[in-house]
Amino acid sequence: MRLKVLRFDPAKGERRYDAFDVTSEPGMTVLDALFAVQNDLDDSLAFRYACRGAVCGSCAMLIDRVPRLACRTQVARLLEGADRVDLKPYPAITDGEPWDPKQEILVEPLPHLRVLKDLVVDMEKFFDCYRAVEPVLKPAHEVPEREYRMDGETVRELERYTNCILCGACVGACPINAENTEYLGPAALAKLYRFHIDTREAGDDSRLLLADKPSGWWGCKFHTNCKRVCPKGVPPNLAIGSARRRLTEMGSQPPEPDEEE
Ligand code: SF4
Ligand code: FES
User: Fold this and answer.
1) Any idea which ligand is nearest the CA of 168?
2) Cα–Cα–Cα angle for 114, 115, 117, nearest 5°?
3) pLDDT at 260
4) Is 236 in the pocket of ligand 1 (CB under 6 A)?
5) What angle do CA 36, 39, 42 make, to 5 degrees?
6) Is the pTM of this model over 0.90?
7) What percentage of the chain's residues is helix, strand, coil (to nearest 5)?
8) For residue range 152-165, what is the model confidence (pLDDT) as tens digits?
9) Cβ(63) – ligand 2 distance below 6 Å
């Protein structure tokens, strides 16, 4: 099996594709294949990982032109064409190196973030957007002596969003993030919605106003790439749709197409 990897050398500012032939093992993941390259073929290859179990979110990258977690993407399934994901096109998946998906696995860094080296991207921009939505619980009521009580339906709705592992795959897959560097992006908006629906907060819609702007709720065009690539099944598109419906009820208007913030 051949791994075709987009390299970036920050010292020289050079980009190039390197091909590595790796022996495929049963159950081998793309992360395992990258380790095989690093251990046996080129120890200068840089990539990020931590848990190796789809928990930490640090190994998201573009694999066969789809943002995925390298640690849970199996090489054999990719070569069989079993893990196909159809995405609304955007430049990172339409422009670039051709490859043979039956023989090769194409590995590139997560789009829309600055590349530091090879497959390692700078997550600062991602976390700037995350911090902008003030992602901490702000209890509005007196803290109860024992636990907060929530009904099952509320908990289930919250869990859809608390499952996010901040991998950035949705941002890497978002055509709006591709064209608008100010856009908060699906992960931050889903996080904001998660606190909006948390019954421990005030429930007064003040959270929603944090992103009531063209680069927030109103920037989305519902391509739904975010939901399709999320390894945890988080639906940022549903959060955005619900937030927009509520803002519309409150009298907020979608901005004009060329409106400045
Ligand atoms: S919403 Fe999904 S894809 Fe986006 S950062 Fe969270 S876990 Fe990753
Ligand atoms: S290494 Fe932690 S999610 Fe892949």
Assistant:
1) 1
2) 155
3) 47
4) yes
5) 95
6) yes
7) 35, 15, 50
8) 999 999 999 999 99
9) no
